Amino acid sequence: MAEWKPRTVAFLSWMFPLTGVAVVLFALPNAAADPLALTVGVTALVIGSLIGVATSNSGNRFTTGLAVAAALPVVMMTETGGVDFAGVAVVYGAGLSVVWALRLSRGEAHPELLPTLVRRLAGYLTYVFVYSSIRVGVFADFDGGWEDLLPFGGALLAWLAVEVGLRALLVLGPRELSRTYLARALLHDLNVFLGLTLTGALFGEFFQELGWWALPIALLPYSFAHTAFRRFQETKTTYKQTIRALARIPEVSGLGIDGHADRTTEIATAIAKEMGIGPVQVEHIEFAGLMHDIGRVSLNEPQVLKMGYTDDDIARWSAEIIAEAPYLDRVANDVRNLYEPFRRPGEDTDPDISIISRVIKVAAAYDWQIHKEGHTPLQALEHLHAGTAYEYDPQVVSSLRRLLTARRVLDPRAAASVG
Question: CA-CA-CA-CA torsion for 46, 22, 123, 181, nearest 10 degrees?
Fold first, then answer.
């Protein structure tokens, strides 16, 4: 897919609040809620959409606006027991238009701002449409409580389908991430999405009986889940920072190329995302990329230098060090096979060589060619391409070519001649 021009993206972004206003004008005459209720709903959605709950390792950003959006159809009911679809649509349209203006004023770029809000508006409207349609259909006689779980579950699945689909399809900047990865990343963070939406639905159910006392009741289980998730994220961040610091030891000791581990990791994770590899494996690639040369600390031993060593020795020593952490057992095995060919004569591929090993091998070799051998990016890519018969997985090398082209490191015509 061709990259969108900045002016086109900016124009479409400015059309978003106009679309929101159009939704408001179309739905407002049919809204059953009074102006005060609509104002409260818009205010809650705006404030909630600006309060970040978590940004996952996959890059997905979640706000309490999801909980507010989930609660609105349950709270805003008509006198006959149906959902005030028009009133909810007014709140969604007006609220997200205000959010667009506030986030733009804070300096957020159009290529990131527009897809997020389009995805939110489409998901919200799908959710309320499906929920209200089910409530006036088979489940019209249901009067709340546990009976609301079925229409809520159906509406939530429809909302999630829209979120996943648009997350994968709607990318307006340079496309470095595959659609497959974007969809899998959102599904990987499904627990956060469900936690927020279920909290909103819980508040909506209690609100019908308890009024605003429902808020602390709904927030209690959410606060525990949110605290646990935040601590988990902080622990994982600290863990990665520790690994990154350890990976620097061979480099600051003069036993490796300065910055090689960080650059290899950045390129390898970008390749993995471009190929559509799942978030869990991308995280393993991050650990393997950082630690793949940690075995070079053994080069401080005079006996090792006297006997000589190979790249395979470095990989073996690195794997032995990594294996001391049980959490990284699989990473240790991937690093151990780092310098093995991805296939041997008579094979399509070697099943013992994981995609993690293949990606790290290509990324490390590319960085080595540039920062050790002094080659240009195109020359480094040519070197890798020449080794795709046995040493380097051609699919990984092709992914690297697409990545470098997207980053404008290579001229597209020159890159095409390499691929």
Answer: -90
- Alpha-carbon distance of 121 to 22, in angstroms, equals 13
Half-sphere exposure of 344 (CA within 13 A, CB side): 6
In this structure, the number of other CB atoms found within 10 A of the CB of residue 39 comes to 13
pLDDT block averages, 10 residues each, the chain of length 419: 73 91 91 89 90 68 86 81 86 93 90 88 91 68 58 86 83 67 78 82 77 72 72 80 85 83 92 89 91 83 70 85 84 88 85 91 93 90 91 92 86 53
| Residue 275 phi, psi (nearest 5) | -80, -10
Helices (H), 51-84: 65-75
CATH number for 248-418 (one of 3.90.226.10, 1.10.3210.10, 2.60.40.10, 3.40.190.10): it is 1.10.3210.10
pTM, 2 dp = 0.76
What 8-state DSSP symbol labels residue 253? T
Q: Please provide residue 54's backbone torsions phi and psi, each rounded to the nearest 5 degrees.
A: -165, 150
354-to-64, 332, 368 alpha-carbon distances in Å: 39, 12, 21
pLDDT value for 278: 86
Domain segments of the chain as ranges: 6-229, 248-418
Question: Which pair of structure tokens corresponds to residue 417?
Answer: 């001649």
Handedness of CA 99, 104, 105, 108 (dihedral sign): positive
DSSP E strand stretches across 364-409: none
Nearest-CA neighbor of 70 among 167, 186, 151, 185?
A: 151
Q: What is the largest CA-CA distance in the chain?
A: 88
Q: Which residue has the tokens 């959902």?
A: 83
CA–CA distances in Å: residue 376 to residues 138, 257, 360, 411: 65, 17, 20, 12
Q: Quick one: tokens of 219? A: 């927030």
Question: CA 164, 91, 192, 64: dihedral to nearest 10 degrees?
Answer: 140
CA 383 to chain centroid, in Å, comes to: 32
Q: How many CA atoms lie within 13 A of 47 on its CB side?
A: 6
Q: For residues 301 and 288, is the Cβ–Cβ distance under 8 A?
A: no
Name the packing angle between helices 190-210 and 179-188 (round to 10°): 50
Strand partners, 62: 54
> For residues 308 and 318, what is the distance between their CA atoms, to the nearest angstrom?
16
How many CB atoms are located within 10 Å of the residue 46 CB? 20
Q: How far apart are CA 262 and CA 244, in angstroms?
A: 8
CA distances from 61 to 53, 65, 144, 208 (A): 8, 11, 31, 30
